[in-house]
Write a structure and sequence with these properties.
Layout (H helix, E strand, L loop, with lengths): L9 H9 L6 E4 L6 H13 L3 E5 L6 H8 L3 E4 L8 H7 L4 E5 L11 E3 L4 H16 L3 H18 L2 H18 L2
Parallel strand pairs: 1-2, 3-4, 4-5
């Protein structure tokens, strides 16, 4: 996602993955643009080698493609979004969404919903969901990844947007007659 790392729940994700040394977390984004957050997060990047800070990465780049192909999920613990385009883009790579309901990700049912009423519960739930994902057989992971990719192709393309927008215009024009 864009800026507002606390709002996006990146602190909770980093804290959860600090307790999951058997995993690798890639953090992409310009965290240095938020000096207070960067100061806090940088300590985790130094202490936990499995939590890797990449800086800003263009999602259309070969570098991002290699990273996405090395991953199985995208974790997004935002407290409020309008359907983040960053997650829609990640779906095209077959990354299984692990998101809060407040993120408003249309494909949440294809992945894992992060629940909790406070930061500790959400952090614990991230750990639980990551372990649940890691316990799935490769065949199930592959099926989930394929379903996510199909969803992205159906709902997150220019053609899908054009069709949806045209349907809206048709409805609006019909109600004006």
């Amino acid at each position: 996602g864009g800026g507002g790392m606390l709002h996006k729940g990146l602190d909770l994700i980093i804290e959860a993955f600090a307790k999951l040394p058997e995993t690798t977390l890639y953090v992409a984004g310009n965290l240095k643009a938020e000096p207070k957050f960067w100061s806090w997060a940088e300590q985790y990047f130094k202490k936990y080698p499995h939590i890797k800070y990449l800086g800003w990465v263009d999602v259309s780049s070969e570098k991002f493609c290699h990273i996405a192909n090395d991953c199985i999920s995208v974790v997004y613990a935002s407290c409020s979004e309008g359907g983040p385009s960053s997650i829609a883009q990640a779906l095209h790579f077959g990354l299984i969404p692990m998101v809060t309901r407040e993120s408003n990700v249309r494909a949440e049912s294809l992945g894992f919903l992060l629940n909790g009423k406070n930061t500790e519960q959400i952090t614990d739930n991230i750990i639980l969901r990551v372990r649940e994902l890691m316990s799935l057989p490769t065949k199930v992971l592959s099926e989930k990844s394929d379903a996510v990719r199909e969803f992205a192709l159906k709902f997150h393309t220019r053609e899908a947007y054009s069709q949806s927008f045209q349907s809206l215009l048709t409805i609006l024009n019909g109600s004006n007659n």
